[in-house]
Amino acid sequence: MAHARGVPILVDEAHGAHFGFGHGFPDSAVHAGADIVVQSLHKTLPSLTQTAVLHLNGDLVDERLVADALAIFETSSPSYLLMSSVSSCTELMYEKGDALLDAWQGRLNKFYEKTAQLKHLAVFRPVYVRDPSKLVVLTGRAGMTGSLLAEKLRKDYRIEIEMAASYYVVAMTGMGDTDAMMDAFADALLDIDKKAVGGSHSAFPAPVLPKRAVPLTEARRGSQKAVRLDEASGQISAETIWAYPPGIPLIVPGEVISHEMVLLLTQYGKVGIHLKNSSGLPRGSIRILNEMT
């Protein structure tokens, strides 16, 4: 639809630098026809943190304009260490990528087979997820929240996961993970599962898009005050609140704080989801406009 109107498509594929090589992993947005695709090498491939690549695809985007924009916004003092890491990573993928991806997929298959024994915790099987390298562990039937499982893994097994949500966690794997590392994660889940008492949970309601009362700029510049979250229903937010990951705002300045939003934010806090805000206020508080506009 976008291409039919001459509109280029830009895709943030930060977690998909390993896409497009086959070996059981998904195709890349480049293969899907996107015009500009950004990938973070360091998230799944052997490259230093902050390294990334920008793919240009098709003829809707003028390469010269992209180069001009990069010249304006990029630093004038690039890190040669990072650039060398990008070169080394791409060279490694060219020379040994097939063997490394096969080995990675083999470790993932072994993990999925091993965790099929879980009785309370549950791991999403590859049939349900497009990228098998992201390990999604459901916690609802184990009588614990995702945050509690993340805490147990960190404290008792020295394993740090990527994301903890209400009743699931997401663990990132990469090409550099070893057999021992994958076995350790599977064994930790099996051990925690044995000690779990079982339970159930109600699904969280999906966040409702808040209604806008005033323009964002007006809300940010207006007279403001801090109130307790349980006193904010019906007020106009003067700040942004989000959970990270994924970093998508739940509410932004100028939007009405509904009763449903207050309940949702309160629930998030109860299950250990760490909410962030732009004001720096402590948890349980929110900045609002002094007067309704």
Strand order of the largest sheet: 4-5-7-6
Helical content class? 25-40%
H-E order: EEHEHHEEHEEHHEEEHEE
Number of helices: 7
Separation of termini? 39 Å
Structural class: alpha+beta
Q: Rough shape?
A: globular
Identify the CATH homologous superfamily of the largest domain. Answer: Type I PLP-dependent aspartate aminotransferase-like (Major domain)
Count structural domains.
3
CATH architecture of the largest domain: 3-Layer(aba) Sandwich
CATH T-level fold name of the largest domain: Aspartate Aminotransferase, domain 2
- Can you identify the CATH class of the largest domain? Alpha Beta
List low-pLDDT spans: none
Mean pLDDT: 92
Radius of gyration: 23 Å
Number of strands: 12
Residues in β-strands, percent: 15-25%
Reported for the largest beta sheet, the result is: 4 strands, antiparallel
Family: Belongs to the Orn/Lys/Arg decarboxylase class-I family.
Domain Orn/Lys/Arg decarboxylase C-terminal: 216-260
Organism: bioreactor metagenome
Protein name: Arginine decarboxylase
Short description, anyone?
The chain has 293 residues and is α+β, with helices and mostly antiparallel strands. It has helices spanning 41-44, 63-73, 80-115, 146-157, 179-195, 216-221, 259-270; strands at residues 10-12, 36-40, 52-56, 122-123, 134-138, 163-164, 168-172, 224-228, 241-243, 249-251, 275-277, 285-289. The strands form four sheets. The protein has a four-stranded antiparallel beta sheet with strand order 4-5-7-6. A three-stranded mixed beta sheet has the order 1-2-3.
